[in-house]
Design a protein that fits this description.
The protein is of the alpha+beta class. Helix content is 25%, strand content 37%.
Length: 148
């Protein structure tokens, strides 16, 4: 049992609704001191075949031109995409990805939404879209995941 399973195991699965399980996962995932935590990325919504996350922009988020660093945008896409296809019994890892940066990332925050294009038994493909605080599309990414 990994730490995510332990975090939601405090309530027997039979007594927890799917929405409660997702809320518990969001709470747990946003407190683990991992890469996402240290880069300010927060999972904001999780449901079947959908995930959303957000990052508040800080001076450390910017590149030398004053725009959000592409690596942070890419990571935000990866975070949302992975959780959009994660389930109770399947853990995805990125096999391949592609991103198109469409405009500079500026503003107070960026948010990302991800939904599967194709769900498979062993491989899934997901699309992530990143928007700024003015709801302008900043980047689109496609991820291929394999399941462990």
């Amino acid at each position: 049992m990994d730490s995510l399973d332990k975090a939601v195991a405090t309530i027997p699965a039979q007594q927890m609704t799917k929405e409660e399980r997702y809320a518990s996962m969001i709470d747990y995932l946003n407190t683990v001191e991992d890469y996402n935590f240290h880069n300010g990325m927060k999972l904001t919504e999780l449901r079947d075949n959908y995930a959303a996350c957000k990052v508040m922009l800080a001076p450390e988020s910017m590149n030398s031109q004053g725009f959000t660093h592409g690596g942070l945008i890419f990571s935000l896409c990866d975070l949302a995409a992975g959780y959009a296809v994660m389930s109770e019994d399947r853990r995805p890892v990125t096999q391949q990805s592609n991103i198109n940066f469409l405009r500079p990332g500026v503003g107070e925050y960026l948010f990302c939404e991800a939904e599967p294009i194709k769900l498979g038994k062993k491989v899934s493909v997901v699309e992530s879209k990143v928007y700024d605080d003015q709801n302008r599309l900043i980047a689109e990414a496609t991820y291929t995941f394999v399941y462990l």
